[in-house]
Each structure stands twice: as structure tokens, then as C-alpha cells.
Amino acid sequence: MCAALTELLGKASLFGELELVELEALAHTAELREFARDEVIFAAHEPADGLYVIVNGRVKVCVSSAGGKELILATLGPAQFFGEMALLDDATRSASVIAQLPTTAYRIRRDDFERLLEQHTTIARKLLRELSLRLRRANAQMESLATLDVVGRLARYFIDLARQHGQILGNGWVAVRRPTHQDIANSIGTSRETVTRLINDLEQRGLVVNEGKMSYLREAVLSETEE
Ligand code: CMP
């Protein structure tokens, strides 16, 4: 059990360069947790209990208005981490994190995370790099919400989804598990009904092919420059 855990933690981008003995020590105190689809892993404003590293599945990071309207800020998948912000700024959780698919994640204790951060500049550098990337994506999302019409936002959403979570099939196509229409709507600031209608439009224009729970995009769209 501990060996498998050590191997998995070593694959997580943040801890990839740790020595085996350090990974083993981390694995010893980390807790493996499983979440069903739609299960709340933690809610915004809760006190922080640790950093999570995703083994498999996918989570959504979201905030809700007083009226219950949800805005999805990001989706995160295998080897990515979440829950670092409240540990770094010593505040409560900045957003809720909910399993979008059945998800397994390791919870790393706050004191282990803080110790590793102090001892390893590579971890601190990787963390800063990832935070910069997330800030860039948040800026792009803000720009998209403010400047694109809903068709443009939906097209950009699918491209980003394929870039971040897609699997290149090797035949010119990328496959990605499609979130629910409601989750897509909550990511691009529109209604579920509008998403349902516009997905059919994208499909008729040949930009996306939908089969069951999967969507397929041409691999070429991944290398299109981001506007
Ligand atoms: P924390 O504030 O502890 O709990 C919520 C987590 O969601 C946060 O740490 C980050 O890991 C993650 N998070 C918050 N905002 C974003 C964002 N804009 N993009 C990606 N992840 C985020």
C-alpha cells in the first residue's frame, strides 16, 4: 500500500523530484480519500485541513452567489493539486471544490506541506509556476466573459477543456469527457438550455463531435494560438 502511494505521489508534478525516502515519509502521513461524483470535498470559507493531490478523476473549483448561482473557476485532473491557497495565506478556503467525476485524492497534512516547502526550492518554484498559470487562466476567463459572445465562450471552453484534460488519440482527434451542460453553463456564464442548443450548433458546424459522455475535437485546435 505504502509503495503504491509513494509511486503515485512521485508522479504528482509537485513532488516529482523528491527522493524516495522523502516520498515514503510523505506517503506515511498522507491520507487517501475517495469522493463520489458531485460530492463536496470542501466548501468555501471552511478552515483548511491540508493540500490535496488528485490521483484520478476530476474536480471543479467553484464559488456561489448568495442566490445559489454557481461560477466554475477551474477544473483540475490527475496529478494536479488544490487547497494550497488557504495554507499559504492562512485564511479559510477561497472556493468550494466538488468532484465532477468519481475522484481519488491524497490529503497531505499542513505541517508536511509547510516543511517540504521550506526544505525544497524545487517544490516552491513548481508551486509558483502553477499559481502563475492559474492566474493566467483566470485572466483569460475574465476576458472571455467580458468580451466574447456566448458562442465564442463555448468554443473557447471546449478548446481549453481539450487542452487541459483531453486525451490525444493519435488519429487527428482529441477525446475529452464532457461535463454536464449545467457545469458548462456555470463555467461560461449562461443557462443550461443555451448550452444544449449551442452544442448542437457546434456539432452541426463540425467543430465538436459528441458521442455519449465523450466529446471529440480535432487535434489541430490544441495548437491554435490563444487569443
Ligand atoms: P484553497 O483556497 O485552499 O481552497 C480552494 C482551492 O481552489 C484553492 O485553495 C486552490 O487550490 C483552488 N483554486 C481557487 N481559485 C482557483 C482558480 N482560479 N483556478 C484554479 N484553482 C483555483
Distance between the termini: 45 Å
> What number of domains?
2
List segments where confidence is low: pLDDT < 50 over at least 5 consecutive residues.
Answer: none
Along the chain, the helix and strand elements come as HHEEEEEEHEEHHHEEHHEE
Main sheet strand line-up: 1-8-3-6
What structural category do the secondary elements indicate? alpha+beta
The biggest beta sheet, please? 4 strands, antiparallel
Nearest-integer average pLDDT: 91
Q: From the 3D coordinates, which CATH architecture of the largest domain would you assign? A: Sandwich
The CATH class of the largest domain turns out to be Mainly Beta
As for the CATH topology of the largest domain, it is Jelly Rolls
Q: Write out the CATH superfamily name of the largest domain.
A: Jelly Rolls
Give the CA-based shape: globular
Tell how many strands the DSSP assignment holds. 12
Helicity, as a percent range:
40-55%
Molecules bound to protein: adenosine-3',5'-cyclic-monophosphate
Our count of helices gives 8
Q: Tell me the strand percentage band.
A: 15-25%
What Rg do the Cα atoms give? 18 Å
